[in-house]
Amino acid sequence: AQTYPDWIWHNGEIKPWRDATVHVMAHALHYGSSVFEGIRSYATPKGAAIFRLTDHLKRLFHSAKVYDIAMPYTLEQLAAACRAVVKKNGLDKAYLRPVAFRGLGGFGLSAETPTDVAVAAWAMGAYLGDGVLELGIDACVSSWQRFAPNTIPAGAKAGGNYLSGQLIAREARRLGFGEGIALASTGLLSEGAGENLFLVFDGALHTTPVASAILHGITRHSLMTLARDAGIPVVERDMPREYLYFADEVFMCGTAAEITPIRSVDGKPVGAGKAGPLTRRMQELFFGLFDGRTPDRHGWLEPLDA
Ligand code: PMP
Fold this sequence. Notes:
Helix content is 26%, strand content 28%. It is α+β, with helices and mostly antiparallel strands. The longest helix has 15 residues, at 277-291. It starts with 6 loop residues before the first strand and ends with a strand. Bound molecules: 4'-deoxy-4'-aminopyridoxal-5'-phosphate.
């Protein structure tokens, strides 16, 4: 069973976890009208740091703008809330979950409701299971497609989007796979249930473009930047499903999933059927940010004690 941390930030104060509750008639519970972030903090040689905190919170504000969810706090106030809740729970390596949602105040779809805001933080290991960062996972292509452009905006990280994510993830688990990969409405590759997708061909990284109904992942952007810094070619392009079977390597990335190698897709081995050399290299570059082996050239490590 899940154990919960002691403290949570809710509407401006830090409360005991059990007291951070909402009403059953909150708008978001019925209509998915929430926006949220997933952020990680890491213990680094220079002290605990929250990875790209400002960029995550910028995305939260962009997501809120799409749905006209009024934000009662500034980005700086939410950054302080994120730091405070990690510290109050005595954490350094943590997963942070800021969420803003339409609360109690109206039942119509276009109701103007007050916005509730919370930030939780807890210790979290590898999202897709123990040992998967080394061993990789077996993935499948989902029978569920991602939502099409201009239906539900994939670039906004809203609670309702994760109905799609749940269909993809639950189908994959039911069939015995570690994660599902969705195709876009075009039939071309999109992303995982909660992760962006990279394929490797001849030493170059290929990733699906933002037009293919993907979240504009911060890990994806970080890996593209780290690769370019290291002289590794990066190509953003549409790819058909069968490229999953042709690729030398495939991996998924996200804040929760970090860099998870994919060792097979639809029962067919990817490359040598284990984490490939460029996947390993990207893991070294990425995790190197947190143990000091990769210089933080872009100011991504935002100190917990700021
Ligand atoms: N796609 C989806 C659908 C996601 O939920 C996530 C996780 N937030 C990602 C991609 C990866 O995004 P990020 O690297 O910003 O966590």
